[in-house]
Design brief:
This protein has an 8-stranded parallel barrel, surrounded by 7 helices. The longest helix is centred in the last third of the chain and has 26 residues. The protein starts with a strand and ends with a helix. It is of the alpha/beta class and 523 residues long. The protein is built from 17 helices and 17 strands. It has 4 domains: 276 residues, Alpha-Beta Barrel (TIM Barrel); 29 residues, no CATH class; 62 residues; 121 residues, Double Stranded RNA Binding Domain. The chain binds 3-methyl-2-oxobutanoic acid and zinc ion.
Length: 523
């Protein structure tokens, strides 16, 4: 499709297919629960993503439920579910997707010689027959069907052309060309996509898509090469999450195409001002931090350190800035708020950070801000982001434990002692521990008593949210459940790092409890 850009020039509109909730979730340690996935899916719609790959429904009950819930509640983008070319996969995918406003089934089957020989033990003819059967079955459910020849970039080009032609003839409306192992180079990618356009007779009946992995750090460059050669859809993820080294990063490719429209002559529907808030949300729910020097959304992406650069930027920003921080959603400046700042100033600040809160949420945010401002002289953007994110991500249950207070005694001699007061439905309970290698261990032992399932403290991270000796500490804990591969994350922020740690532990315990309650309800 062609659209006019702001200069009135006609340019091709590229479909942005986000797979943060599927390939992105395959990043080690990036698993999300259903509520978090719905939260992210809603943010992706607001960002202007065209297609959201919500999950792989047959993979687990949790994946199925998440795709179904996203299909029910998320409107405004196509919702897609992944399936192998296997009847049960496709049937489950449709079951999960059928309530979506615009559903898409994405079927895939490996085509490269390595996969055919060692993984599938199938001939070329069998692969074509299975791929066609998969597309036809999906087509029986919905008109919007995508087919991916897995490991397409290592597939013999003649065979790839045949597979693409056969699956389009069977009804695929999008054919995706994955560089599954991140092996290809931009030059090879250009040649491969061009060949498909030249040699596949029915190629104009489908959108050609690209799905690049980043094993050699070339996912964005390879995706751009594909676009230059005529690809009309890019598969990508927020913060470049994904299997192994990840996928093509959405924020990088979108800003590359927008900033260098003179070169690429394409655009997308993405509202670039929402890139930073979306990146932060994904980082928050997955617990995977965005590297400071990450292009476009990293904290240092617009930080000018050298005096020469600072001087240049103050005189004329374009000396060292090729895009503005505001255009990707960074606030203009890190204005400091304090205890005398009013609700209007806070509301303005929250808006400029890219969040939209309901009046009720704003009241709670203001209350949290005032509490913080009483304990901390200067409240920075990073503090406000913490307050808002904590609030947005809080999904309470009646049976949730609420942290109230704590007492702690520890030192280099003797065992630490901790007493934690919590409440459940307004009823207080104290749990104590006098054991462990240090205060965090003792806190874990204390809160473990709240549930009957044996847990382990698998990860603990603590860091300052902003600068200054009165900075807030952000604690992240990951609890493992013994005898299962489930993990539960908790995070919290406070000017008191022990309080932050306890609140994070309590949040994780609440997650454990909710998962078990849901399991009992289903049983
Ligand atoms: O990398 C890959 O090949 C995939 C496919 C399922 C599209 O993720
Ligand atoms: Zn992939």
């Amino acid at each position: 499709m062609n659209v006019n850009n702001q200069n009135g020039d006609s340019c091709r509109q590229i479909v942005i297919f986000d797979t943060t909730l599927r390939d992105g979730e395959q990043s080690p340690g990036a698993s999300m629960n259903m509520q978090e996935k719905v939260e992210v899916a809603k943010a992706l719609v607001d960002l202007g993503v065209d297609v959201i790959e919500a999950g792989f429904p047959v993979a687990s009950e949790g994946d199925f439920e998440s795709v179904r819930e996203i299909s029910r509640v998320v409107k405004g983008s196509v919702v897609c579910g992944l399936a192998r070319c296997v009847n049960n996969d496709i049937d489950r995918a449709w079951e999960a997707l059928k309530e979506a406003e615009e559903p898409r089934i994405h079927v895939f089957l490996a085509t490269s010689a390595i996969h055919r020989e060692f993984k599938l033990r199938m001939s070329q003819e069998e692969i074509i027959a299975r791929a066609v059967a998969g597309v036809e079955r999906a087509k029986g459910y919905c008109s919007n069907v995508e087919f991916s020849p897995e490991d397409a970039c290592r597939t013999e080009i003649d065979f790839l052309c045949k597979v693409v032609e056969a699956t389009i003839a069977a009804g695929a409306t999008t054919v995706n060309i994955p560089d599954t192992v991140g092996y290809t180079t931009p030059g090879e990618m250009t040649a491969r996509i061009r060949t498909l356009f030249e040699r596949v007779p029915n190629i104009d009946k489908a959108v050609v898509s690209i799905h690049c992995h980043n094993d050699l750090g070339m996912a964005v460059a390879n995706s751009l090469a594909a676009v230059m050669a005529g690809a009309g859809q890019i598969e990508c993820t927020i913060n470049g999450l994904g299997e192994r080294a990840g996928n093509c990063s959405l924020e990088e490719i979108v800003m590359a195409m927008r900033t260098r429209r003179d070169v690429f002559h394409v655009d997308t529907r993405i509202i670039s001002q929402k890139l930073v808030p979306t990146s932060r949300l994904v980082s928050k729910v997955t617990g995977l931090k965005v590297p400071r020097n990450k292009a476009v959304v990293g904290r240092n992406a617009f930080a000018h350190e050298s005096g020469v650069h600072q001087d240049g930027v103050l005189k004329e920003r374009s000396t060292y800035e090729i895009m503005s921080p505001e255009s990707v959603g960074f606030a203009k400046n890190d204005l400091v708020l304090g205890k005398h700042s009013g609700r209007a100033a806070l509301s303005e600040r929250i808006k400029s950070l890219g969040y939209e809160l309901t009046p009720e949420q704003l009241v709670s945010a203001f209350e949290a801000f005032k509490n913080l401002a009483d304990r901390k002289k200067e409240v920075y953007d990073a503090d406000i982001i913490e307050i808002v994110d904590q609030m947005i991500l809080k999904h309470g249950n009646d049976s949730d434990w609420k942290y109230e207070s704590y007492e702690l005694a520890c030192g280099s001699d003797g065992k630490p002692f901790v007493k934690v007061i919590l409440s459940q439905n307004g009823v207080e309970k104290a749990v104590c521990a006098r054991e462990g290698d240090g205060p965090v261990h003792a806190m874990f032992v204390a809160v473990q008593q709240l549930v009957s399932f044996p847990l382990s403290l698998d990860e603990f991270k603590l860091e300052a949210v902003s600068g200054g000796s009165d900075a807030q500490g952000n604690a992240v804990v990951v609890l493992g459940e013994q005898g299962s591969c489930k993990t539960y994350r908790g995070r919290a922020t406070s000017t008191d790092v022990f309080e932050a740690t306890l609140k994070a532990l309590v949040e994780a315990i609440n997650r454990v409890q909710r998962v078990h309650e849901n399991e009992e309800r289903r049983a």
